[in-house]
Amino acid sequence: MALALLFTCDMAGAATVDLYRDELPVVDQSLATRRPAFALALQHVLLRLSGSAPDLTSPPIAAAVQQAQRYVQRFEYRAVTPKQGEQDSTGSLLDVRFDPKAIDALAQRAGLPAWSAQRPDLVVWLALDDGQGRRLVSESDRSLVHAFIDRAKLRGLPVLFPLLDLEEQQAISVAEVWGGYTQRLIALSRRYGAQGVLVGRIFPVPHGQWSVRWDLSEGGRPDYWSMIVRGDLDAALEQAADRAADAMAQRYAVREINQPQGRYHLLVDGVTQLSEMSAVQAYLDGLSAVSNTMPVRLHGNTIEYALDLTGSVEQLVNVLSFSDVLEPADVAFVDMNGVLHARLRP
Q1: Which of 51, 115, 218, 281 has its CA 20 to 30 A from that of 166?
Q2: pLDDT in tens, 242-270
C-alpha cells in the first residue's frame, strides 16, 4: 500500500487514517477474483477501524463478509509498481472504498470498539541485527523493513523512521538504541513533531527464532514488551508492528455501549470566529469517544460544550491530547470539578 493512500499527516504531529479504504493485489480483474478480495478488504477495514481483528464467527461480521460487495462504495484497479530489483510485476492492485455509514453501522451491530481516524504517529528507532552486524534503520532503509511498514499501514498505525542524517549520527549510536535509552531518543524525535517514540531491537537467536524488544513512550506513558518469534525476519517485523498497534489500540479504541458513560463539560478558549466554532463542533462530533455534543453557552472567546461520552473521560483526554484542533489550556485538562479545559490551536 502507498503511504499516502491511508495516512495524511498534519503539523500537529498526528495523522489522519483513511479507515474505509483498502488496497490489495489481485491476479486478474475477474468477478471470481474480485468477490473474495472484497471480503478480505472488508476484514482489513474492520481491523483498522476497531484496532483488533474482527471475530469472523460473530453473526453480523460473518454475514457482512459473505456479502462484502454490498458495503463497497466504489473500486478501481491500478497497475502494480515493481518492487526494487524486479523488472516488472503481474496482476493489479484493487483499490476499494467502503461506505463509511454502512461500515460504522456494522461495527456498532457487532459491538466492535471504535478507534478514531486521527491517530498519534510514532518515530521508530530500530536497532537491527540481521546476521550482518548491528545497524540503525533509517528512512532510506524502508525496503529492509517493508514487512513492519506494511503491517503498520494495515493496522492504521502511522509510523516514520528517522533520517539518520549527520546531526542524528553524531547525537546517537547504535549501542544507545540497542540499550533502549528512550529519553535521549525522545529529545531527538522532537524535530519530527511526532506524538510518540517506539524504540526497538531485533536480533536472531538459536533454532530459527528472533528476539524482539520494544519500548513505547507516547502521551507520557511508557510501555515495554519483549517476545521470541519463530520464522524469518519479516515474521518478526510483522509481529512487532502488531504488538505496537495492539498497545496503541488499547489506549485509544473505545468500545461503544448503549448508554453514555456520563456528561462532561468542555471549555474551549480562543474561539473568535464563526468558522472556528464550526471547526471545533465538527472535530468533537467526529470523536468516537463522544456520542453527542451540545454548545451550552458562550463567554467572550470561550465556548462551553456538554459532551455525552461513550467511553471514559480518560479515553477522551487521551484523544484530545494530540488533537490538531485543540490543545491543553494553561490549567489541567480536567479540573477538580471534572470540567475539561482546552483552547483552539493557533
Answers
A1: 218
A2: 999 999 998 888 765 444 457 788 899 99
